[in-house]
Amino acid sequence: MSILGNFVWSIADQLRGVYRPHQYGGIILPFTILRRLDCLLEPTRDDVRALSERFDGGALDVQVKRKTGLTFYNTSQYDFARLLEDPEGLRANLIDYISHFSGNIDVFERFGFEAEINRLEEKNRLYLIVARFAEVDLHPDTVPNAAMGDLYEHLIYKFAEASNEEAGEHYTPRDAIRLMVDLLFAEENEALLEPGTIRTIYDPTAGTGGMLSVAEERLLERNKHARLRLYGQEINDLSYAICKSDMIGKGQDVGNIRLGDTLADDKFFDKTFDFCMSNPPYGVDWKASEAEVKEERTKDGPNGRFGPGLPPVSDGQMLFLTHLAHKMRPAHEGGGRAGIVLNGSPLFNGSAESGPSEIRRWLLENDMVDAIIALPTDMFFNTGISTFVWILDNNKQAERRGKVQLIDASDMWVKMRKGMGSKRKEIDTVARERIVKLYDAFTETDSTKILKNTDFGYWTITVECPLRLNFSASRAAALDEKALAKAFGKGADPAPFRTVLADMGKQIYLSQDKFIEAIREEFVSAGLKLTPAQYRHLATTLGEPDESAEIVTDLKGNPEPDTSKRVTENVPFTYGGNTLSDLGRNETINAYFEVDVAPHVPDAWIDMKKTKVGYEIPFTRIFYTYTPPRPLAEIDGDLEAQISKIMGLLREVEA
Fold it and tell me: Is 55 in contact with 49 (CB distance < 8 Å)?
């Protein structure tokens, strides 16, 4: 395929001087699509022309489908061969040709193709380009659908390279897709082998259609009589055009590939699917969709696709995660499975009851997370960071219910002979089969851990320490009117209070109650009144931290917390080896407090009203294996050896 891809890209040599290299893709890609469609239509062209003389509109669509089996057509008298017969009229005839495609072929307008045709004609390059493309046979008998998909992606890569863009923004490496597809199909392997099997698959970030194409290829490899209906939505015009063109060549319903922002406008809002796949952008903000997402969340409530929670606007990955969870076929209809590639952030970002934590909570408490697989680094074209495949399932097999399988496949790869962008590693057939076998076995090994959903839950507790202050009336002199006014109440004149406090001198009180008693006597003598709450507020205003002082209390005698010493700690649901069925929330938290907090801070307490529920998946920590440091004697021996070596070299120099 690289030979064909390089040949097609070499046609861009005709564009030198007229276009800059980063503009080549805007010509090469639409002409490649046009030539593919031209070759696809060749066998049925005469039949369609005949039908077009008798029918039009929707009737023609039906008749063409019935006669040829195709869901698209072109009623023009032209093809590449006939276009070249009239060099003088080439521009007008080519525009006529692309304007006579059926209404569902809207891909050329995405490239502004007519304007490019006019420019090529103006620069005397149009005939050269059309002639070169006419030499390329892109009929499926010569270039099968899988190879055509590879060709599109090769051209996209060259286009991105020339434009200094990231190829990974447009498509996902095939090795990563094959792994995801095999994992998705693993639980339905037997059902997928049945004759006449029909399934649906959906990609909300379809790109050039690579995930959909590979899914179809893998299913047909298993069962050539199966049928996989492909659905996708894509926001980028260029990728959408290529994806739709690729689906046309596969005989798919091109109406199932739709253009638009999945987050802001779900084009398949009324559909769910057997399988879902996605490789959304990492660390990309969703500000452009923010208003629509929040409006939909308000309208649809907790059961909507964004109901569980919203991640920070700076990163929209988890919105696609919840979106996919809602696009799986409901469990009562047989259930669905989804696979999505994410970076490490969605495993643990966000504190308890934050948007990300609530999304994880919703997925885990509804038992939808089936497995998470850590991929090798340097797997993708535009990033070398760690990535993870999440497999979701809303109708798990009995032995998997209530559990999550974690697989560390970060060391299961082979080095590529030639890297592409950031991609240096690939998951070959051997590695892919190894990972799928680990998944199928569902047993713990060094590379596989199986945990209960509740193992990922925790409570964030707030530990308070008592406030200890000493008090002095003399500090009132340093306070401004605003600070004192808060203590004396709205509209009160602080001047007489300040005068009384100033006359009390600089005595330090270590007891809140004794200080309040002292200033109350002085205020009463001066005819001044305060409520009990105001006396306490005034005392706190005139207090300073002092560990030797008594504890400050509220009106009910409860200790006031020292906010400077306030800390939060996470208590696992499974603390002490317990499960939620063994101990309740408060019992588990109290057990943690008695063992891990109270011995170190005897006067501390937990403010249960502030307790929050959180979920995180500490993947790296779960697989961490402690490696003890080398023995000191061994290190000393190595140092002595190095010193001896250095001294020997110094003696040689001195000699």
Answer: no
Q: Is 269 left (phi over 0), alpha (psi -120 to 50) or beta?
A: alpha
Q: Report CA torsion sign: 515, 521, 524, 525.
A: negative
Q: Tens digits of per-residue pLDDT, 565-610?
A: 999 999 999 998 766 656 688 999 999 999 999 999 999 999 999 9
Distances (CA, A) of 52 to 42, 45, 63: 16, 11, 9
**Could you identify the residue written with the tokens 């340093």?**
478
Q: Which residues contact 78 (CB under 8 A, 6 or more apart)?
A: 93, 94, 96, 97
Q: 252-303 pLDDT, tens per residue?
A: 888 899 999 999 999 999 999 999 999 998 888 999 999 999 999 999 999 9
Three-state helix/strand/coil letters over 583-626? CCHHHHHHHHHHHHCCCCCCCCEECHHHCEEEECCCHHHHHCCC
d(CA 411, CA 408): 8
Q: Check pLDDT > 90 for residue 653.
A: no
SS3 letters across 118-145:
HHHHHCCCHHHHHHHHHCCCCCCCCCCH
Q: How many CB atoms lie within 10 A of CB 238?
A: 20
**Bridge partner residues of 461 (DSSP):** 569
Percent of residues, the chain, with pLDDT higher than 90 = 68
3-state secondary structure of 295: helix
